[in-house]
Design a protein that fits this description.
This protein has 99 residues and is an alpha+beta fold. 45% of the residues lie in helices and 16% in strands. It has a domain of 53 residues. The strands form 2 sheets. The chain has a 3-stranded antiparallel sheet.
Length: 99
């Protein structure tokens, strides 16, 4: 392995070879690009789309009931893009100082 100070290693438990930071950034960018093209999201994808944690997504769906969801299988919740966008639209707080 070359001695490159800009390249640090990240280990993926599903892959036996070490990944560089640039590999990880590329993989995340591809994932984000695919997520932005979806109209149906699982919990992890919804969390990435809203830039929040999975527990926050589950909280808004199951506890506060601000987020509509479907339970298609025992594997978790499924969300429509329009419902995720609606959650954000309903959560916007206007700045009243400017009025």
């Amino acid at each position: 392995m070359e001695n490159d100070k800009k390249t640090s290693l990240i280990f993926d438990p599903d892959d036996s070879r070490p990944k560089t930071v640039s590999d990880s950034i590329f993989d995340n960018r591809i994932s984000l690009d695919l997520i932005l093209k979806l109209s149906i999201f699982n919990e992890r994808e919804a969390a990435m789309y809203l830039r929040t944690g999975i527990e926050t997504i589950r909280y808004h769906a199951l506890r506060s009931r601000k987020l509509k969801y479907a339970r298609i299988s025992k594997n978790g919740l499924v969300f429509r893009k329009q419902d995720l966008d609606e959650l954000i639209d309903n959560s916007v707080i206007e700045n009243h100082r400017d009025s």
